[in-house]
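Support request, please re-run this one:
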Amino acid sequence: MATCEANQVNPEAYLADVLLRVQTHPNSRIDELLPHEWKRRRIADPPNSPLQLCI
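Re-run finished. Output below.
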């Protein structure tokens, strides 16, 4: 949670998204799920649903 807050990431949105993704995400790219990288990717490629825009 502290890492999310330090990176200005909504912890609830982050955890909800990552817990769904981690099931199928390749181990070799696990660093993409870290809060700072997750935020960068969300900004670069925002989700289609407005419900998923909580950063």
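The mean pLDDT is 86. DSSP finds three helices and no strands in the chain.
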